[in-house]
TrEMBL record:
Name of the protein in its database record: Uncharacterized protein
Region (Disordered): 1-66
Residue stretches of biased makeup (Low complexity): 1-11
Organism: Kineococcus aurantiacus
Top-rank taxon: Bacteria
């Protein structure tokens, strides 16, 4: 007596079916059949789709790490920008009494902010002095000129009379008469 046997084959995914790597459907059965896992001992991370969508699956954890990484990068970039601005202000403070506009050192000078920093990233006062001296040698018009006294050189020898302003005709008559 022979027993009729039927063979069943697992259907292969067709070209219009797509593979979902996040799906763990059938994974437990496969691992038990291959002897890689005991029956009733679920594999970590193979919970049902409801738990994965609730933020417990490996993809959700990777997404949290990526978001955390992006936040850390944004914070790092913001802090780097703040430090660069502080270094730039320190360079301008050191050049303040020597240049008419302290920012001209980095604008017109042939130096960058990195050239004015020491090995530890601090502003090197000696390097700033040398850069200012080099810039002033090349462009003396950028030198700071202190303001002179307010009453010096304006040509007034007597106080200006206050009252009605004179007309142009009165000024011409006064000039012609000499007085």
């Amino acid at each position: 007596m022979s027993i009729p046997t039927t063979t069943t084959t697992d259907p292969q995914p067709g070209p219009d079916e797509t593979f979902d790597p996040a799906s763990t459907e059938g994974l437990d059965d496969y691992l038990v059949a291959e002897g890689l896992r005991e029956v009733g001992n679920p594999v970590e991370g193979t919970e049902d789709e409801g738990q994965q969508s609730a933020g417990r699956g490996p993809n959700a954890e990777a997404a949290r790490w990526r978001a955390s990484f992006r936040e850390a990068e944004a914070e790092r970039d913001g802090l780097r920008e703040r430090v660069t601005n502080l270094q730039r202000r320190e360079v301008e403070r050191l050049a303040e009494g020597k240049l008419a506009q302290a920012g001209d050192l980095l604008t017109y000078g042939e130096v960058t902010l990195d050239d004015l920093l020491d090995a530890d990233g601090h502003v090197d006062a000696g390097a700033v002095e040398q850069a200012v001296a080099g810039l002033l040698a090349a462009r003396p018009g950028l030198r700071y000129l202190p303001p002179g006294p307010s009453s010096f050189g304006l040509g007034y020898t007597r106080p200006i009379p206050r009252g009605e302003p004179e007309t142009f005709a009165q000024a011409v008559r006064k000039t012609v008469r000499g007085g």
